[in-house]
Amino acid sequence: MLHRKSPLFNRLYEQINEMPVIDCHEHLTGAEARPPYKEPIAALFTSYVLHDLQSAAFGVSDRDVARLEDHEVSTDEKWPLLEKLWRATEHTAYARVTKLVLKNVYGEDTLTREALDRVAEKLADQTEEVYFRTIDEANIRAMLVDVLWWLPVDKFLSGEKTFSEKWRPLASLTSLHQTTFTHESLAWYGRLADMHITSLDECLEAMFVIIQRCVERGAVGLKDQSAYNRTLAYELPTTAEAERIFNSILADPRSFPGWPEGKPLNDYLFHQFMRFARELDLPVQLHTGHMAGVYNRVDKANAAHLASALELHREVRFDLFHGNWPYLGDLLFLGKNYPNVALDLCWLHIIEPDYAAELLERSVMVLPHAKVHGFGGDYGDMPEFVAGHLQIARENIAGVLARLVERGWLEEEEALQLAADWLFNNPNRFFRLGFEEVRVA
Ligand SMILES: [Zn+2]
Q1: pLDDT of 180 higher than 80
Q2: Is the torsion defined by CA of 50, 53, 59, 60 positive or negative?
Q3: Which residues make Cβ contacts (< 8 Å) with residue 346, sequence separation at least 6?
């Protein structure tokens, strides 16, 4: 438990634990991209917790750290390095998810070499059936998934790849909105749209067709995570500036613009995508703040850079991710100031639980509570980690609401309704998922 147990906290937590959830952001494909679980360290140390191990691994080669998540490398071979790194980082929130998985899925209280042998015996139980059951048992009613950029989008468009009922995919701009365009990528967009691209206009036409086809196959919005590679400061270049760069690619298929030379074209495309979102009435999810991995720059990902784009595209509704960590104040301003902006706390409860709690608590007083989306797991095909993350999020939300009730800002019943709104009603309405609203009273 993250909070000292008070009777009030316990009452709130018990009810919040039973509430249905709309999981606002995942990268789950529906089990197909999950490697068979063969080795316990690989099953427990992948994704974000591995990035904390990397951060603790000064002087250790990247290759040795990466081997920890390899199911083909033996536990004995990995254990000395894992033990050393785990001792250095076991109290982070990412590590806490691993501890919860260790406890909830494998029944182990502490990570020891002997415990890993017992985990190994249970890995075969992690079947596809358990994968889906884990999501059901977490009471996740629907999941917004961003997988169409690495799960081949052509298979999705042809109907070869379908998702089970809880999955709500988004058309990913990541593959359409590259920092450096190549002739190959243009050929690929052309194939997806059944046309051959010979101009910037035709390229935009192809991209519109691709997005439209994603929507026909069930996509509920657009998702862009360009902040990993570029600044969120989108300027407004002229069509001529964008076209000049684009034409240089067409003129010599073996050349492509570098960065920052390609920025005007990249900026231009972003604004065009926002116009597509307006035309197709699609919400837009944007990565802001902290990035997975190590050795990136967070200042370029500050949502404050988006202000002019948010102000310009005011008929588009934006879902800003990750609490803009660590720029909390900037995000509260954007949420309060722009009617077209919602705050999405996906990933945030395990980036920093206290920051997520502070954001929720301050948001109640600063901006309309209907503009806050309380949870997204942001994991790949590891639903047991999503469930652990959700447990932390529910505890966090109960803690925030207990404090607001204690200080007299909310009545207990209002607090519970707020939890239902954050976890379910707000995203249900924002993404037009069509579920019946959850009323607490
Ligand atoms: Zn993500």
Answers
A1: no
A2: negative
A3: 24, 25, 321, 322, 373, 375, 376, 377, 378
In percent, the amount of the chain with pLDDT more than 70 equals 98
- The domain limits of the chain are 40-125, 138-430
- Kindly give the distance from the C-alpha atom of residue 222 to the centroid of ligand 1, in angstroms, as a whole number: 13
Contact 404, 108 (CB under 8 A): no
**Mean pLDDT score, 14-38:** 94
Q: How far is the CA of 257 from the centre of ligand 1 (A)?
A: 27
The alpha carbon of 25 and the centre of ligand 1 are apart by a number of angstroms equal to 6
| Closest C-alpha among 308, 161, 327 to residue 234 | 308
Ligand 1 center–CA 319 separation, angstroms = 13
Q: How far is the CA of 378 from the centre of ligand 1 (A)?
A: 5
Contact 376, 344 (CB under 8 A): yes
What distances in angstroms separate CA 262 from CA 173, 205, 266, 267, one per listed residue? Answer: 17, 20, 6, 9
How many C-beta atoms surround the C-beta of residue 155 within 10 A? 12
Q: Which letter does DSSP use for residue 92 in this model?
A: S
Q: How far is the CA of 405 from the centre of ligand 1 (A)?
A: 33
Distance 26 CA to ligand 1 centre (A): 6
Rounded-to-integer distance, Cα 192 and Cα 185, Å: 11
Q: What is the rounded average pLDDT of the residues 322-331?
A: 98
Answer yes or no: are the C-beta atoms of 393 and 349 closer than 8 Å.
Answer: yes
Among candidates 279, 214, 283, which has minimal Cα distance to 428?
283
Give the distance (Å) from ligand 1 centre to CA of residue 407. Answer: 35
Six token digits for residue 298:
């967070």
Ligand 1 centroid – CA 24 distance (Å) = 10
318 C-alpha vs ligand 1 centroid, how far in Å?
Answer: 16
List the structure tokens of 365. 């007083």
Q: Structure tokens of 264?
A: 């005007």
Q: Which CATH architecture has domain 138-430?
A: Alpha-Beta Barrel (3.20)
| Angle (CA) 45 123 46, round 5° | 15
Kindly give the distance from the C-alpha atom of residue 145 to the centroid of ligand 1, in angstroms, as a whole number: 9
Mean pLDDT of 298-306: 97
Ligand 1 centroid–CA 146 distance in Å is 7
Q: Tell how far CA 280 is from the center of its chain.
A: 23
- Cα 375 to ligand 1 centroid, rounded to whole Å: 12
How many Å lie between the centroid of ligand 1 and the Cα of residue 379?
Answer: 7
Q: Give residue 80's pLDDT band: very low, low, confident or very high (50, 70, 90).
A: very high
Distance CA 334, CA 351 (A): 21
